[in-house]
Structure formats: C-alpha cells, structure tokens
Specification:
The complex is a heterodimer of chains A (196) and B (177).
Chain A (H helix, E strand, L loop, with lengths): L1 H18 L4 H37 L2 H8 L1 H7 L8 H14 L3 H17 L10 H12 L6 H9 L8 H26 L5
Helix pairs in contact in A: 2-6, 3-5, 5-6, 7-9
Chain B lengths: L1 H25 L4 H9 L2 H7 L1 H16 L2 H13 L9 H6 L4 H15 L4 H12 L3 H11 L8 H24 L1
Helix pairs in contact in B: 4-9, 7-8, 8-10
The chains are: A mainly alpha (196), B mainly alpha (177).
Keywords (chain A): Membrane, Transmembrane, Transmembrane helix
InterPro entries (chain A): Gate_dom
Organism (chain A): Desulfofundulus thermosubterraneus DSM 16057
C-alpha cells in the first residue's frame, strides 16, 4: 500500500510538472523535501533524548506499571497482545494523554518509545507492523485533542468574535473519526490474520 | 471548562517533571544515573527516522510543488460540491494527511480570506483540529523501529481522517450554516 502511494505521488507529480512545462520544479521540490525531513529528525534528537530519560525514571519508580494497571480494562480490549504490565502500555497511555492535552512536544517522543516497546513484543518479522502497532497508530492519528490551541490562536489573530466556537464541533468530528478507527482496526486485524 | 482544560495542559508537563524524579528518588532509584541511562538511546532513535522521513517528504514535496495536488482538487470538487462541501476547503482536506505545516498554511489562508467566523472559516478550523497528518505520523513512528511493511495501518488511518472530514462538514453545516 505505502509503495503505491509513494510511487503514485512521485510519478503523478513529475507527469503533471512535465505537462505544465515546469519540470525543473521537481528537482527543487525533492531537495526541499529531503532538507525538511533531515531538519525534522535532527530537531527530534533533543526532545527524544530528554523524554527517554524521564521515561526511564518513571519506569524505574514503578509509575509506568501503576499507570498501566489503572487503565487495564480498556487496554485489555484494545491491545490483547500486550501484557498488562509491559512498559509499552505505559508509553502508549502517556502518548495518548499528551495528544488529548495537545502537548505535541511530549506526544511524539512518548509515541516513539511506545513503538520501541511494541517492537520488542514483535515475534514475527521485525520489518512488518504488528497488530498492536496498527491499533496504536490508529488511536494516535485519530485521537481527540480537547483544546486545539494552534487553530484557536489563528482564529484569535484574525479577529474572531468566538474563537473557541469550533471546540465542540472539533470534538464531535474527532469522536466520529476515532470510533471508525477502532472499528476499522478491529475488522482489518481479523481480515489480515491475527499476529501480535 | 476551557480554562480548566487549559490549566491542566499548562501544568501537565511541569508536574510530571516534578513528580517523576521525586517519586523515583523516594523509591531508592539513583535518579541521575537512571536518567542518563535512558537518554542514551535518544540520538540513535531520532537519527534512525531520517531515511524514512526523507523518502516520504520528498514524494509529498514533489506532489505538491508540481501542481499535481491542484489537479486532484480540480477532479474531486464537482463530486463534493453538492454534498455541502465547499471546493475552497478541498486543498486542505487533501493536504492534511500529508503535511501538517502545509495544511495549517492553507487553513490560515482560508481564515484570513473568508474570516474566522464565516462558514468556511469554521469548517476549516474544525477540520484542522479533528484530523491528523496520518502519513507523516506513520512514516515517523514506523521508521523509528525500522518497520517498512505497514499492513493495514494506512487504511484505518485514512478511514478515520475521512470520517472526521465528513463529520466536520456535517456538524458545521448543522450548527453554523
């Protein structure tokens, strides 16, 4: 799937640029994309290093375990393949909480830690996603943000009389998306065969 | 209510930074050494994402700069217009799963042009808040652990985005039209 999407974007892009007689745009765009990717990854070094340190402390203090036990009824349903006391559980919960609170800076490192822990549970091919990883990412990308701070800020900037008017509609739309994400994930997991 | 949630957001990280090391210390953990031990993995984890992100962002960048995205929008808008979906916001919907920055740029532009309290302004605000940069997140997260076969993750992620999009159009039409 990812192969088709990736190739499709490049091939279609180059064809359209060629048809428009501005094929040289492609070269510049490719280099700009690569530049942005490397900068993003390098920017992540600081924040991931920092949160990995904090997470190790939380784990050593037994806090991750305690947190995991707290939400066990929900996670047992969503992640049947992950042992309840596994560190992956704690990282998943912290990632989702950070997402809900709109703390993007904390959410990404927590999510990457969760992925590392889930990879440790991967009994199959390490290059293939496990069911638990797919469930986690479905939740992560469809997750509710209670206060979408960025867009509220932009609305304020352009003189909105009611900048938070969209909070209710946003929560409604996200809730619909999240429900579908969980249902789709469950169905596809069965369809693709159960692993992890 | 908004004030309460805002306060929680403000305090969440400072409180975590206060409580985690404190509790660890009380439980007899050597806090400094443990922090360093955990942080040691940070560099490799971040650097490992580079090839995956380069691959994805190059493709997205070409797709966008070449005008291919405009073609896609052009093809889709006559189908979507009768459904209460204004063609102005379509570029945002197409761009949203691919690039967070670009989508935010489109949203900002629409809010500036049509006004934040207009129908389009409210719709694009709701869309921006309720959908995610699915491709970027999948690339980054899977890349950090070296997974290249995503199986069905893209399908469920995009299904969620599409649902949120339809739900945004529905609810904003109901409340603000």
């Amino acid at each position: 799937m990812v192969n088709y999407v990736w190739l499709g974007m490049i091939v279609f892009g180059i064809l359209v640029a060629g048809a428009n007689g501005q094929v040289e745009v492609v070269t510049r765009a490719a280099l700009e994309g690569a530049d942005k990717a490397v900068k993003t990854s390098l920017n992540l070094i600081a924040i991931i290093t920092f949160w990995l340190g904090i997470m190790k402390l939380a784990e050593a203090a037994g806090l991750v375990r305690a947190l995991a036990r707290l939400v066990r009824p929900v996670t047992r349903f969503l992640f049947p393949g992950v042992p309840a006391n596994h560190p992956a559980m704690g990282a998943i919960i912290m990632n989702l909480s950070a997402n809900i609170l709109g703390l993007g800076n904390a959410a990404t490192p927590m999510g990457l830690i969760a992925m590392q822990e889930l990879q440790k549970l991967n009994r199959g091919d390490p290059r293939t996603a496990t069911g638990a990883m797919c469930t986690f990412l479905a939740l992560n990308t469809s997750c509710i943000t209670l206060i979408p701070t960025t867009i509220i800020g932009i609305r304020v900037m352009y003189g909105s009389t009611d900048p938070t008017a969209i909070v209710g509609t946003t929560i409604f739309a996200t809730a619909c998306g999240m429900t579908v994400a969980v249902i789709m994930d469950r169905m596809l997991r069965v369809f693709y065969g159960r692993q992890g | 209510m908004y004030e309460l949630i805002n306060e929680i957001s403000r305090w969440a990280i400072p409180l975590t930074l206060l409580l985690v090391p404190l509790i660890a210390m009380l439980r007899g953990v050597s806090v400094f050494e443990t922090f360093v031990e955990g942080a040691a993995e940070g560099f490799t984890t971040a650097v490992k994402t580079i090839p995956y992100l380069v691959a994805m962002l190059v493709a997205i960048s070409i797709f966008r700069a070449s005008g291919a995205m405009d073609v896609l929008v052009h093809v889709l808008s006559p189908i979507l217009d009768p459904l209460g979906f204004p063609p102005e916001v379509l570029p945002h919907a197409v761009m949203r799963p691919l690039s967070g920055g670009a989508a935010l740029g489109i949203a900002t532009d629409l809010i500036a042009t049509h006004g934040p309290d207009s129908f389009i302004g409210r719709l694009v605000s709701t869309m921006q808040g309720s959908t995610d940069t699915t491709f970027y997140v999948l690339t980054l997260y899977f890349g950090s652990v070296g997974v290249t076969r995503y199986r069905y993750a893209i399908i469920s992620g995009l299904a969620a985005d599409l649902t949120s999009l339809v739900a945004s159009v529905f609810i904003v039409n109901q409340l603000f039209r």
